[in-house]
Amino acid sequence: MTKPRWKTAAGIAALAAALCLACKPAVSASELAGSESFYKDEGAHFEVPFEYWSVQGVLREDGSDKPIYFTAHFNRAGSGYFHVRNGYSSLRLADGSHDFRSFGMGVVQALGKDLLQMRAEQRPDFPAFRRAYELAEKGEFENFTPIPEEDAAMHRGRLYINLGGNRLERMSNSAFDYQIDLNTWAGVLKLSLLSGREPLYFDANRPVRVESVSDLYGPEAGMLVGYAVPRLKVSGSLAAKDGDIKLSGEAWLEHWWGKPKGEAMAQSAKTLISLPDGGDLLAVKFYDTKGGQVSSVALYKAPDGSMQRDNEVSFSALESWTSPDTLTIYDVGWKIESEYARGEIRPAQGAKDSELMLMRGVGGFWFGPCEFTGAVERAAAMPASGFGFCRFASIKEYRAE
Known about the structure:
mainly beta, AttH-like fold, 14-stranded mixed beta sheet, ten-stranded antiparallel beta sheet, 14% helix
C-alpha cells in the first residue's frame, strides 16, 4: 500500500490512490489492519478542512435481549494552524430513555450562543429559543460541556482522540482493535471494539463529490474520502449511578475527510446496514438547498467479500419527523433503489427521536438506529433485511400554518 504524501498539493489525490490499493480484493482484512499506511490514515488529516469519526452500536446487558443504542461522534474543522474540535454522545437505554451530550472548544460554545440568539430573533413564536439564549447569556448551556484547547487532543499518524475524557483510540497497529470512553447522560461508557472484517470504502479513484460546482478549494472542492469498519464486536460497561452494567454487542466505525462545501453538507442521508447473511451495505446521498440530489453512491459487500459500487442510487423520502427542540423536519424514512440494493430504510422501533444537537435547540442532526427491508445482490434480486445506523441532515423547518 503506497504511503500518501500529505504535504503536497495533491494530498487528497495521493490519499485516494492509497485507499484504492486497499480496495483490491487481494488485500485481506488482516493485511490491511497491519498496513502502516492505513494505520496512519486513521489519524487526523490536518491538511484538509473537514473530518469526522463516528462509532454507532447496539448493546445488550448480560442476560437481556432489550437493545441499548449508543453514538460517539468527533468532528474536526479548519486547516492551517487552527482546528476546531468538538463531539457528541448519545445513549438510549433498554427502557427507551434517551438523551445526548455535546462537548467542544470555547469557539464552539460561542457559536452555539450566537445560533441561539439568531434563532430567538428568527422565531419569536417559539419561546424555547429565547429561554435557551437567556440561559446562555448567564453562562449556562444545556447539554454542552466546554473543553479547554489543551484537553482537546487529536493526533496525526494514528487514531487517538481525547476531548475532555471522551476518547476514541486504536489500540493495535496490527488489528482493528479500538477503545472508547464516552461521557453520557447516564454514566461513563467504556467499550472495547474488535473487527476481523475489511472496511468498506468509497471508490477513491472516483471520489464522492458533495456539490455540483464550487471554486472554494479549487479542483479538489467537494471531494470526500471515507471508509467504514463493519461488525465490530463490542464489550464493556456503563458506570451508572446504581453500579456498573456489563454490556456486549456490535458496532460500526466510520471516518470521512476532505474538502466539502458547507452548503452541500447541510442536507444528506447516509445508512450503514449489516445483513444476516454476512453482507454489508453503505449508501449515502448529498442534495442541494432546494432538495435536488447532487450525488449519491452505494457500496455493497457480498458475504463472499466481493465489493460492488453503484453511482446511480435513488433516494425517495417516505416519512418525516419534526424535532420539538430545533423545529427541524428530518426525512427519516427512505426508499433506496440501486443496482445492488433496493428497499426501505426506517428508524428502529422507538428511536425516531434520535437527534443530536450542538446544544439544546440548535445545530441538530439525526443519528440513530435504523432497519432495512428489501433485496440485495446484482439486480437486487435476493430478499434481505438488516439492521444498522443512519445519519440525516436537513435544513427543512417546521412553521405553523
